[in-house]
Design a protein that fits this description.
alpha+beta, six-stranded antiparallel beta sheet
Length: 237
């Protein structure tokens, strides 16, 4: 009987020590999480309530945070209800830790509602500004998933589309249309190795060479049309 009691006592002590270790471990984890939360810093705060979407009916707020292990952006969209703002959407994205967000509001699809972009990174030794694009659609922001593949993005009035300007050892003006939640490139003009090429790209991705010619006027020229070929003189100044 005495042996059974001692065995039970030993088991209870072991179990108690195990529970204490577990509690200490949980406390350390919670303390670590608390320390990380305390180190999160707000680096940028942008708000617009007059231009985004349906003007003066929606408000957007972007905040950039830096934590010990990442930099991220939080975007909240609000809709006006009487004198109050009701949150209708929240988005969160990782971001590079070097550049500011440089948020911009403008119409990218010519529907009369202003859309939103922010600078997410940079490439090509600073020549390619990478932005995430959000189209205001059905009272929400629709993230265009491959928008970061189109550097120096802008709305193209000439073709009622979006164009981009890619800079590398040469340069390429890419023309694209918004289809659902992505951009589909349908044409481009490339200058590389003293040669200019104009290509058309079908919906299934098949490329057709429309023009190829010697080009010795420099490598970094942007175009606002591909057929006919029209150089963007203002941009290239």
């Amino acid at each position: 009987m005495r042996n059974i009691f001692l065995l039970f006592l030993s088991f209870s002590l072991i179990n108690c020590q195990s529970e204490r270790k577990k509690e200490n471990k949980i406390s350390l984890i919670n303390l670590s999480k608390l320390e990380k939360v305390q180190k999160i810093e707000l680096e940028e705060n942008f708000t617009d309530s007059t231009e985004i979407g349906l003007k003066r009916k929606f408000k957007i707020n972007l905040k950039k945070y830096r934590s010990p292990d990442s930099v991220y952006v939080e975007i909240n969209l609000y809709k006006k209800a009487g004198t109050n703002w009701i949150k209708v959407q929240r988005l969160e994205f990782l971001k590079d830790g070097v550049l500011s967000c440089d948020p911009k509001i403008e119409d990218f699809n010519n529907d009369g509602f202003n859309d939103f972009t922010f600078q997410s990174s940079i490439a090509g030794r600073g020549a390619n500004t990478i932005r995430k694009l959000f189209i205001f659609d059905k009272e929400k922001l629709k993230f265009i998933k491959n928008s970061e593949n189109f550097p120096n993005i802008r709305y193209n009035k000439e073709l009622n589309c979006i164009d981009a300007f890619r800079v590398y050892a040469g340069s390429q003006t890419a023309f694209a249309k918004i289809e659902k939640d992505s951009l589909r490139e349908f044409a481009n003009v490339e200058i590389y190795d003293d040669t200019l090429k104009v290509k058309y790209i079908s919906k299934n991705g098949k490329e057709k060479l429309l023009k190829i010619e010697k080009y010795e006027n420099g490598y970094f020229h942007r175009f606002k049309n591909y057929k006919p070929l029209i150089e963007d003189v203002e941009y290239n100044k």
